[in-house]
Specification:
The complex is a heterodimer of chains A (105) and B (512). Chain A has 105 residues and is an alpha+beta fold. Chain A has a 4-stranded antiparallel β-sheet, with no helix packed on it. In chain A, strands 4-7-6 form a 3-stranded antiparallel β-sheet. In chain A, strand 2 and strand 3 form a beta hairpin. In chain A, helix 1 crosses helix 2. Chain A is globular, with a radius of gyration of 13 Å. Chain B is mainly α and 512 residues long. Chain B is 58% helix and 3% strand. Chain B is built from 21 helices and 4 strands. In chain B, strands 1-2 form a two-stranded antiparallel sheet. A two-stranded antiparallel sheet of chain B has the order 3-4. In chain B, helix 4 runs antiparallel to helix 10 and helix 8 runs antiparallel to helix 12. The chains are: A alpha+beta (105), B mainly alpha (512). At the A-B interface, strand 5 and strand 6 of A face helix 4, helix 9, helix 10 and helix 13 of B.
């Protein structure tokens, strides 16, 4: 990948479900998973979105975006958190975006 | 009752930038702490973090993290897991506990400084969470290390290290005082959250957890990777600070990154390098130190700084060459001066281990093999004394680590070059060109005196190895020694010992 972005997840029971949710939320995108045992790199090109709704399908109806913070040891790119979603995107994407164009989740 | 979403209320409670009427702004945010420099004060109004968190979210998540970490500890406390860990791996953890516990506390002070003097309320808010994070890290690291004191007194250095004038903590204090205690908050945000926590801590807290898990130390792997989840969040103070600084003063931004990158790289070569490539049992090594550096620093961190519009540091070629040499030389130095350590460094140069080192580092045998052969042959000749130190190494006036970096000259020979300069009537020694350059640019800084400076000034008495060890706080029950000489020398027993000076001397005499 030229500009990989995405989370590094620490060991735990829910890693596979988070990866499945990322794949669901980013259809058509190649999601690379590098498993190093105690941590797993999950990455896609330029921008990955992960929504609370999809996470709840896999991890229960009370799962919140901030709960992901307990699993994410690191990440590549810029991370943007809202109540509904978390986004990892290339850091320079915002600088290159036309004025007034935000980066909605 | 439905709760408002965070986005609907956070800005009203977080963005509390007061306009002062009874005091001058300079009195509240003095330049020497707030450090705006060439950046107009108005520019800081645009500072905004992307990784947002509220206090209720923070408390809920941190509670989960703590419960999880302590649950694993409690479950393993009654098992014999610790007793079966390899001595080399245990040394990695002793080095970590001693080297990290109170650095975390220094980071509390750094975060508090940003929470007080940061020039935007959102930044101060984030730093407040950051200092709570670092307090957790200081506590959990101290507590987890303290658990093992009853099994091994070397773990007492979890709490003791930073209070001692041992050469390792002097080096670390020099680095982290410069990174966390001395700078104004703008430089601090670039040095600590951006350079150190976005880059280097990943190596010690995430990459090393892969080796920890392989080595069977689930508790340690769980603790360090839990700590790094906090770093992943509060390190994001660096990004918004960087964006503003790059726009108004890119030269300053690049300099702060460069010098802290170099200092961190030197420290990690001394501590993380030997842990990954020597102390972790061969069968449990997930990747080499160089491979982990390539993954986390060269690919991930450098990609990040280039994305912010900056360049690779000026010393890049020297740094890249050092990936094949620094930590090997430092490992040999740590092993040779092993009585000065609070862990048991294992040499780890058996034939299988050397095969692995040659595979990962094609020049390893050429540069280090013959030196280890001398040591091996001395030990196989029952002359361990010949492998013990009687003098001190030159320590670098910048990084405080031994000057032991092998460099290949144009004629192909490997040597340890002398890097020195004379300033104000005194000659200073350095381990590398970049350490010398950084020292020169920062020469008005108050750097810690190296152990050699202290020795030559007569601060260490008596001026012999015993006096030095006492000065450094080493007592016989914690003094480092190789945990198992036979493990890495038996492959070579009985071979012709051509490389040792000691064999030529009459029995009973020492040589080195």
């Amino acid at each position: 990948m030229k500009n990989p972005v995405g989370p590094v997840l620490r060991m735990g029971d829910e890693v596979e479900q988070v990866i499945a949710a990322i794949e669901d939320d980013n259809p058509g995108m190649e999601i690379e998973v590098i498993d190093r045992g105690s941590y797993v790199r999950v990455q896609g090109e330029e921008r990955i979105v992960l929504t609370r709704d999809t996470l709840r399908e896999y991890l229960g109806h009370e799962f919140e975006i901030h709960t992901l913070g307990a699993m994410m040891s690191s990440f590549v790119g810029r991370v943007i958190t809202t109540s509904d979603a978390i986004v990892w995107e290339r850091i320079s994407a915002r600088r290159e975006a036309p004025a007034g164009e935000g980066v909605p989740a | 009752m439905a709760l408002l979403k965070r986005e609907e209320w956070q800005q009203y409670v977080r963005d509390v930038n007061w306009t002062y009427s009874y005091v001058d702004d300079e009195a509240v945010y003095p330049e020497w702490h707030s450090g705006t420099g060439k950046v107009p004060r108005s520019a800081w109004l645009t500072w905004e973090e992307d990784y947002k968190v509220t206090y209720p979210e923070y408390v809920a998540t941190q509670r989960d993290k703590e419960s999880s970490a302590y649950a694993v500890k409690a479950a393993l406390q009654r098992s014999t897991t610790f007793d079966h860990l390899d001595e080399g791996w245990k040394s990695s953890t002793k080095m970590h506990f001693g080297g990290v516990a109170l650095v975390e506390y220094a980071a509390v002070l750094g975060e508090l400084k940003m929470a007080r003097f940061g020039l935007n309320a959102a930044w101060r808010n984030m730093a407040t969470f950051g200092q709570l994070d670092e307090l957790r890290h200081a506590q959990i690291t101290t507590f987890f290390g303290h658990e093992f004191v009853k099994k091994d007194p070397q773990y007492d250095w979890t709490q003791k290290t930073f209070h001692m004038d041992n050469w390792v903590p002097i080096s670390l204090r020099n680095l982290f005082d410069g990174m966390m205690i001395a700078p104004n908050v703008v430089d601090l945000a670039i040095a600590l959250p951006f350079t150190f926590e976005t880059g280097f801590t990943n190596l010690q807290f995430v990459a090393l957890s892969a080796d920890a898990l392989e080595a069977g130390d689930v508790n340690f792997a769980n603790m360090i990777s839990s700590i790094q989840t906090d770093e992943a969040r509060h390190s994001q103070q660096g990004g918004p600070t960087m964006e503003i600084l790059v726009e108004h003063d890119p030269v300053r931004a690049q300099w702060i990154i460069d010098k802290n990158f170099w200092g961190s790289a030197r420290a990690f070569a001394a501590l993380t390098g030997p842990a990954m490539d020597y102390y972790t049992p061969l069968e449990h090594r997930k990747q080499s130190y160089r491979e982990f550096m390539e993954e986390w620093i060269i690919d991930q961190f450098v990609h990040t700084i280039e994305d912010y519009g900056l360049k690779k540091p000026w010393f890049w070629d020297e740094f890249m060459r050092g990936l094949d040499t620094w930590h090997h030389g430092l490992h040999m130095g740590l092993w040779f001066w092993r009585p000065t350590l609070w862990w048991r460094p294992k040499a780890a140069v058996s034939k299988d281990e050397r095969d692995w080192l040659r595979e990962k580092y094609p020049n390893w045998e050429t540069v280090y093999g013959d030196k280890w052969d001398v040591i091996i042959d001395n030990i196989n000749n029952n002359n361990v004394e010949a492998t013990l130190p009687e003098t001190l190494p030159w320590l670098c006036s910048m990084c405080n680590l031994p000057c032991c970096n092998a460099v290949q000259a144009r004629n192909g020979r490997w040597r340890v070059p002398e890097w020195s300069l004379t300033y104000d009537g005194k000659t200073f020694q350095f381990c590398s060109n970049a350490c010398r350059q950084i020292w020169w640019k920062d020469r008005d800084n108050v750097n810690h005196e190296t152990l050699i400076d202290r020795f030559l000034a007569g601060q260490i008495q008596p001026m012999d190895v015993g006096g030095i060890l006492t000065h450094m706080g080493l007592t016989p029950e914690v003094m480092g020694d190789d945990p198992d000489y036979e493990a890495w020398t038996k492959d070579y027993a009985g071979r012709p010992a051509t490389g040792i000076a000691a064999v030529a001397a009459p029995a009973g005499q020492e040589g080195a």
